[in-house]
Amino acid sequence: MLSRILSNTPRWLAAAVFALALAACGSGGGMTSGSGTMPQGCNATTCGNAQLTLTDAAGDFASYSVDVTSLQLTKADGTIVETLPVKTRVDFTQLVNVSEFLTSAQIPVGEYTAAQMTLDYSNAAIFVYTDANDTQTAQVTQVVDGSGNTLYSSTPPAPTSSTITLSVKLDNKHHLFVNPGKLARLALDFNLAASNSVNLANPAAPVDTVQPFIVASVVPTDTKDVRVRGTLVSVDVSGGSYTINVEPFDDENTSRGQVAVNTTANTTFEIDGTPYTGNAGLSALAAEAAGTLTVAFGTFSTTDFTFTANRVLAGTSVQMPNLDRLQGVVMARSTVNGVITLSVRGATMWMHADQHDHFSMKTVALTLGSGTMITAVGSEPSAAPMTAWPSVGSRITAFGKAGTDASNNPTFDATAGRLRIELTTLWGAVATGGVGTGQVTLNLQAIEGLPVSAFDFTGTGSDPTKYVVTTGVLPLTAVSATAPLRFFGLVQPFGFAPPDFNADTLVDFVNTNAVLNVDYGAAGSATALTTTTSSLTVVQSALVANEEHTIRIGPQLIDLTTLSGDLTVSPDPSSMGPFAIRTEAAMGMGMMDTIDVFNNFADFDSMLTTKLGGGAKVERVLALGHFDQTSNTFTAGQIAIILN
User: Fold this and answer.
1) Which helix (H) or strand (E) holds 282?
2) Which of these, 549, 638, 643, lies nearest to 191 by C-alpha position?
3) For residue 441, what are the CA distances in angstroms to 406, 433, 449, 602?
């Protein structure tokens, strides 16, 4: 849904937060998880445990699959430690709403000052939206680095090198300390929008320029659920926890250490398709065999870095033997001779044959029947037959058989399989008189980031201009008639609307993060910013035509040229950043990037002022925070500046 300028020159993809956030602490509670076996040279006194999670910020990519081949940490004495035991395949677009637990590594104790991450593009599968409504996609045919060297090409010859590595220095005042018997956490936030520039001169054959931007901070930003995936080791019913071998994403071959998953009386479980809550779910999990696949969603404690699940899937609720898996959003629904067909967009299919994810540029025809087992996250349908539950707008996970029809269009047969309704997100503006008791009526704008115009609501009973959301006990006192709202919940069963949507979480306009994205082109601007020790000013007269200069708040896009004057960017006093500066400089035949990271705005501003005074030009300004249009003030919790 991000705005686009489809020109003959490369453009930065819109919307951003930060490229890679690295957070850790050398203190906390006793070690509640570990690698199971110590690596060579490690023992209880020479090594400590570092837990790594990976996430991504939203961008214009439909799918972005590459291999992460190395994640290294550098000690103060220059020693380099590898924390990733094997190559890991990652689709970063699947990490917008969650952080994935990547590894639980035993590493030597000490002080760490920098990190390096290596990406391999030799088998890249990157798909980008090519239209303003995110309805058309194309596969990237070539990936190049900042110096123009080819990393990936869909046609011969193959590149001589397909990897790219970037190093980042941690804030001098906040290094990573690993101690024996303590947990340390590294929270990695890779931002596609800040790291990629796509040339859409030929929309059928996009070219992507990649320059990864890594930010390191000792303050984890736990605003998303963390997903912990792996095989069951043991269950402690009386202790309310279970232990797994970490196997992130869809890796089922190599353990990345062990982690303990804590549960509560409110933790929901779905095990082999059967729902449970609390201790009953843990007891059911204890009956499963060792090696059973599990996935938990929950949160990390910021004090002792222990993990507590609010939702657990296990057994065939994660993956069914000999069946493929489909994930996507229902765009339309039809029934012919008792067979229900769902049109699924943004679909990723995990194929049992090769155990890999495959993104579909085409809409997938998903068929259901009376034999399809249907469940819903956190709720068991009671108001309608189970087959009526998957309605238009639902985000779903299905297990069945992938195939193609006579016209080579993708199909997915779940008539003898399983389907789960996942939590869905939607945006809308309050309709006139739309705020009532326990419900809000919206002029619907987007579902799962896709525009309402892309959905076919025929037969649902839903009117997207008067879309009724039940809110239960969610507070509505602060909702105004003009406020865009974001809800998380479940779509009403097909044909049973209104109400149209049952919400369990509300994020209002005021409390929704805004994204500042200002692009000055490859040449950069010497007049883009003015600085003080307490704020930055984005100078309106220096904005570049045909380049991105927006603030995005959900579906609302604000052009900076429409503001009454210059934009003041002030640090959020409750935030420790990260605040980062990436500087591009010529080095030999190519370019070398350096990244400086700060947890203190004054230190960040001091270096920025020095670099601008030394002749550096601003290529791009990115910030995440809250926008007050009355005062033209953007209060930022995180800031990233790209200079050349």
Assistant:
1) helix 279-286
2) 638
3) 42, 8, 19, 45
CB 379 within 8 A of CB 389: no
Reply yes or no on domain 324-422 having CATH 3.60.10.10.
Answer: no
DSSP 8-state code for residue 423: P
Q: Which residue has the higher pLDDT, 379 or 459?
A: 459
For residue 137 the two structure tokens come to 């996609």
All structural domains of the chain with their residue ranges: 15-210, 225-317, 324-422, 424-508, 514-643
CA distances from residue 612 to 194, 531, 584, 599, 644 in whole angstroms, order as listed: 20, 10, 13, 20, 10
Lowest mean pLDDT among 406-410, 516-520, 572-576, 633-637: 572-576
* pLDDT of 7 over the 50 cut: no
Q: Do domains 225-317 and 324-422 have the same CATH topology?
A: yes
77-91, 122-136, 165-179, 330-344 — most confident range: 330-344
> Which amino acid appears at position 580 of this protein?
A
Distance CA 462, CA 497 (A): 6
N-term to C-term CA, the chain: 29
461 or 41, greater pLDDT:
461
- Quote the tokens at residue 392: 């238009």
- C-alpha radius of gyration, the chain, whole number: 24
Name all contacts of 506-509 with Cβ < 8 Å and 24+ positions apart.
506/471, 506/474, 506/475, 506/476, 508/478, 508/479, 508/483, 509/480, 509/483, 509/484, 509/485, 509/553, 509/554
Is residue 288 within 8 Å of residue 366, measured between CB atoms?
no
Look up residue 81 and give its two tokens: 């430690």
The first and second tokens of residue 151, run together, are 């990393």
Return the SS3 of 566. Answer: coil
State which fold the 225-317 domain adopts: OB fold (Dihydrolipoamide Acetyltransferase, E2P) (2.40.50)
Query: What's the mean per-residue pLDDT of the chain?
Result: 82
Residue 38: the pLDDT is 46
At the top level of CATH, which class does the domain 424-508 belong to? mainly beta
Contacts of 409 (CB under 8 A, 6+ apart): 362, 363, 365
The pTM of this model reads 0.80
List, for residues 166-205, the tens digit of each pLDDT value.
Answer: 777 877 887 878 888 777 776 666 767 778 888 888 989 9
Half-sphere exposure at residue 333, Cβ-oriented, CA atoms within 13 angstroms: 23
What lies within 8 Å, CB to CB, of 276 at 6+ separation is 268, 269, 270, 284
Owner of token pair 């919206």: 442
Q: Transcribe 13-56 into DSSP letters.
A: PS----S------S--SB-----SSPPTT--TTTEEEEEEEEEE
In angstroms, the CA 119 to CA 117 distance is: 7
- Cβ distance 636 to 523 under 8 Å? no
CA distance 313 to 102: 18
Helices and strands (DSSP H and E) totals, the chain: 3, 45
Q: Which of 54, 55, 418 is nearest to 270 (CA)?
A: 418
In angstroms, rounded to a whole number, what is the distance separating the alpha carbons of residues 328 and 348?
7
Question: What pLDDT, on a 0 to 100 scale, did the predictor assign at position 21?
Answer: 35
